TrEMBL record:
One of its GO terms (molecular function) is phosphatase activity. The chain crosses the membrane at residues 34-52, 79-96, 102-121. Keywords: Hydrolase, Membrane, Transmembrane, Transmembrane helix. This is Stage II sporulation protein E (SpoIIE). It holds the Pfam family SpoIIE. Coiled coil: none annotated. Gene3D superfamilies: PPM-type phosphatase domain. Residues 154-366 form the PPM-type phosphatase domain. InterPro entries: Bact_Sigma-Reg (IPR052016), PPM-type-like_dom_sf (IPR036457), PPM-type_phosphatase-like_dom (IPR001932).
């Protein structure tokens, strides 16, 4: 056994004492405390079965198993499950009579323990589990929503966005990223539809929302989509493609530029005529073609004018042409937005589109 010498006191400190002092200094982690309490409960149940084998149901051992599967991490949970299975075996051996019902109950409990054990091994790949894993997913979702926040705009501008995922889940493959130029002169917004739906596309949407947010504020408007395309090509994902529509809006004059990448076209409403027109631009889907070119549509938003940017979930439905879906959306917009644009994006996403697809809508209105 090796030992160390304290330089100040010249006293030899054995390794076991150093470990004990370190343990006292750091104390028990929250997870360790929970595991110890669960062990005490499980042992208490087993003692109860030993003292009152008829009155005390050994199936009560499933209660600490349930709590452990929620609160313990992937490092601690397997050891607790193994301990619990040992205690279950002891409890069964203490039964007065082994009936077919007890055998069936025991088999079910061992199956539940095996399932929790297998789940803990899967969580080990991530390194967290239970409530901490859920907290991470909630944080990821919040970050996606934060990326889509609209920055403060000067008086006379109203910009609203709304996102709805397939099946009502909180993760979506559609997202919105918005940023205002450092000098405050222009607003840049991109509406993106990542391949896949719901949770399947949620992780890719999170990565792309952060990356696109950095590119959007750092590059001139004409360079954003080419840079986004190059970024997706470098990822080399099996489903590494996305569609996007990019709006660059001059907040002083109302002049705008719109570019699309395999995305449904934006729509422009003139307040004078009250009619909507489709701004068709050309550009390939992001992540498929190198050195892609993206054509630009320009215009100006006057007082009362509006723009709609949206994903294909708003206009596509099975066995229906997308142009018919766009016509229906514009007709619905004329009806819903007549007189007030307040809550326009949320109202349109609720009224339109397929419930089996992610949907995103951005409404820009100059008051």
């Amino acid at each position: 056994m090796t030992a160390t010498v304290d330089a100040q006191s010249s006293v030899v400190t054995p390794p076991w004492r150093r470990a004990w002092l370190l343990f006292r200094r750091r104390g028990l982690t929250t997870e360790t405390r929970i595991a110890l309490w669960l062990v005490v409960v499980a042992v208490g149940i087993t003692v109860g079965v030993a003292l009152w084998p008829v009155e005390m149901p050994f199936v009560a051992l499933m209660l600490p198993l349930l709590v452990a599967s929620i609160l313990l991490g992937p490092r601690t949970l397997p050891w607790f499950v193994i301990l619990l299975m040992v205690l279950l075996t002891i409890s069964v051996s203490l039964q007065v009579e082994i009936t077919p019902r007890i055998v069936a109950t025991t088999a079910v409990q061992f199956a539940m323990g095996s399932f929790v054990l297998g789940t803990s091994f899967r969580r080990a790949n991530l390194g967290v589990g239970g409530m901490r894993g859920e907290s991470m997913f909630i944080d990821l979702r919040d970050r996606i929503l934060t990326q889509g926040g609209i920055p403060d705009l000067p008086e006379g501008w109203l910009v609203q966005s709304a996102l709805t995922s397939a099946g009502g889940t909180l993760f979506a493959g559609d997202f919105v990223v918005a940023t205002r130029r450092p000098d405050g002169s222009a607003l840049d917004v991109v509406v993106v539809d990542v391949s896949g739906k719901g949770e399947e596309a949620g992780t890719r949407a999170l990565l792309l929302s952060g990356s696109f947010g950095g590119l959007l504020g750092a590059l001139p408007p004409e360079q954003f989509l080419p840079a986004a395309n190059d970024y997706l090509l470098r990822q080399d994902w099996d489903e590494g493609f996305a569609t996007a529509v990019h709006l660059s809006l001059d907040l002083a004059t109302g002049d705008f530029q719109i570019r699309t990448a395999g995305h449904p076209p934006a729509a422009h409403r003139l307040a004078g005529s009250g009619r909507w027109s489709v701004l068709r631009t050309e550009g390939p889907v992001l992540g498929l073609i190198e050195d892609a070119e993206f054509h630009c549509a320009t215009g100006r938003l006057g007082r009362g004018d509006a723009l709609l940017l949206y994903t294909d979930g708003m206009v596509e439905e099975p066995r229906r042409d997308i142009d018919l879906g766009i016509d229906r959306m514009l007709g619905q917009a004329e009806s819903l937005l007549r007189g007030s644009f307040d809550g326009a994006a949320a109202r349109l996403t609720e009224a339109l589109g397929s419930r089996d697809d992610d949907r995103a809508m951005l409404v820009v209105h100059r008051t």
